[in-house]
Amino acid sequence: GTGGSANGADGGTGGASGSSAGGTAGTGTDAGGPPTRGAISLHVAPGTGCSLANTFEDFPKLASGHPVSATAKGEAVVDGGTTDEGPVSVRCDWWGDPTPMFDAVLKIGTAGAQRFVNLGASMDPNKTIDGGLVFSDDALPASYGSTAEGPCHYDVISMDATTRSVWGSVRCDTFSTSDGSDTCILAYSYFYFENCKIKTMP
Question: Is the separation of the CB atoms in 66 and 40 below 8 Å?
Answer without folding.
Answer: no
